[in-house]
Design goal:
With 352 residues, the chain is mainly α. The chain contains 16 helices and no strands.
Amino acid sequence: MSSPTFIVVVLAFLIGLVFGSVGLLSGFCLNSSIKDWLQAQDGRKLRSFALAAAVAVLATQLAAATDLVDLSRSIYLQPQFSAPLMFAGGLLFGYGMILANGCASRALVLLGRGNLRSLVVVLVIAVVAQMTLKGLVAPLRIALLQWSQATPAFNALPAIAAHLGLGDGAAHVAAALLVAVPLAIFALADARFRRAPLQVAAGLAMGALVVAGWLATGYVGADDFNPVPVTSLTFVAPLSDTLQYVMLSTGLTMSFGTALVPGVIAGSFITAALTRGFHVEGFSSANHMLRSIGGAALMGCGGALAYGCSVGQGLTGVSTLSIGSFVAVAGIFAGAVAGLRGRLRVPALQPT
């Protein structure tokens, strides 16, 4: 493992440590954010997510404007993408996280706290994502991708701003402000959120971690002879890669994603141990287990189709201001709302 690659792996593990700790202490999760917003009229967690997105967008675009990170090398800014497939993948992921009562990143955090339900969810996400990306479902995914993908004139908001006459750096800043300012206003406009320091701090920290990931892979890992793939926080494909690495590590090297995943678990475990919050828990019923497995399968497939999860697209993808990421996030929200309301609403678990 070359020196830049080794440093990126170490940084990924450290970023994961912080993510796991902050996630456990604050309950940072898009699933619970949407649930609290729609069912309890409590928008604090959703506003924390919005603040994280605002910080991630602004800082990431500043890094791109100053040439610290070449975002065009990331998966989110491909010249071709399938909007229908990404939206459908988002729908599956959003509905799946409601069914499983948590997204991929939240499952890792809860696993570190001793939640054995999350172990099942994590394993199913990893297996189904691998099936969708490289296994039995891959031929169908590739066929749908080739049938539905297009090459739009602009694949991101900064490209539109540049087309309107702004310089490259100014285009990044202008597009960032266009998105980040409304998100920050939405987050900070609520007095209850402003009086919740843990939620405010979690939003700031999670947004900063997204930028740290970009800098780790796009700046520290920028080696002309052995460049590291430019990416940041995302969990569906890394879960698949981590499972493959654990099973077949001979001849393989660790990546940003395969170091991030154990970092999150370790950060959550250490925090749970220090706060005496570690406790082993399992499923309450067979129905509970089936729901979790079904939701995890939808998240694994949907996350693979959408190129990311609630964090991978909702924060990291959005931070690139990619048009495709906005489509995927719209699908995730639509799937989550469908799971909470309407004819597709996920029924509540019956007590045992």
